[in-house]
Amino acid sequence: MQKSTANVAKLVRMAKEYDQEAFGELYQLSVRSVYRYLYARVGSTDAAEDLTQEVYMAAVSGIKNLRVEDENGLYAWFFQIARNKLADHLRKRYHRQETSLNETDSWEADTPSPEGFAVEAEDRAEVLHALEQLTAEQREVVLYKYVLDYDNQKTAQMLGKNTNAINQLHHRALASLRRILTGEKRPQP
Questions:
Q1: What is the mean pLDDT of the chain?
Q2: 19-31 confidence digits (pLDDT tens)
Q3: Which domains does the chain have, with CATH numbers?
Q4: What pLDDT is recorded for position 126?
Q5: What single DSSP character describes residue 145?
Q6: Angle 5-16/20-42 helices, nearest 10 degrees?
Q7: Quick one: which of 64, 56, 61 has its CA closest to 33?
C-alpha cells in the first residue's frame, strides 16, 4: 500500500508531536519491510521480532529529530535504525558466543522431517554465512532486492546511490555469492 508523499509528510509531522495514531500508521506502513530485512539477517523469528521492537522503540524516542517528510526518507531512517540495532545485536552475540539449543520455532503437522529440517537449516546457515562474506554494500543490495523485493531504482534511493552503482554492486554480489557457495576460486587478474 503506497501512501502519498503529502500523506506521509503529514503523518511524520503529527508523529513528531507524539500523535500515537500517526506513528501507528507509519508503523503499519513500514513494519513488514523492517521485519523481513532483520529476519533475513538473523534467520530467527524471535530475534527478528525482538530487533523489530527495538527499532520502533528507538524510532519513537528519536522521531522528534526526524528531518525527512517523504516515504523514501522515512524508510531510509527506519532501515538505518534497523542496521544499528542489528550491529548491536551481532556484537552482543559474538561477545557471548551463545548458541540456542532449540533453534526451531514450533513444530506443526506440516513441518518437514528432521532430516529435511536439518538440510533446510544447513542451507539457510550456509547462505547467511555467504552473505556475511560480502561487503556491507553488496549485502545491503542483495537484501533490499531479494528480501524486500525492491527494484534497482528504489534500492538506489534507499541507499543513497545511483542505479548504475546498484547494478554494479548487485552484479558483484551475485558473482561473489556464486563463488562462495560453489567453492570456486576467485579468478586471478
A1: 82
A2: 899 999 999 999 9
A3: 1-98 (1.10.1740.10), 113-189 (1.10.10.10)
A4: 80
A5: I
A6: 100
A7: 56
Residue 104 amino acid letter: T
Among residues of the chain, what percentage have pLDDT more than 90? 29
Residue 66: which residues within 8 A CB-CB, separation 6 or more? 12, 15, 16, 74, 77
In the chain, which ranges are continuous DSSP H helix?
5-16, 20-42, 45-62, 71-96, 114-132, 136-142, 152-159, 163-182
The Cα 15–Cα 19 span in angstroms is 5
Under 8 Å between Cβ of 16 and 63: yes
- Residues 26-45 have a mean pLDDT of 91
- How far is the C-alpha of 66 from the C-alpha of 159, rounded, in Å? 17
Reported as a single tens digit per residue, the pLDDT across 123-150 is 677 878 888 888 989 988 988 888 888 8
Is residue 76 over pLDDT 70?
A: yes
CA distances (Å), 117 to each of 48, 97, 100, 122, 139, in order?
20, 24, 16, 9, 26
pLDDT at 85 over 90: yes
Closest CA to 29 of 72, 81, 82, 63: 72
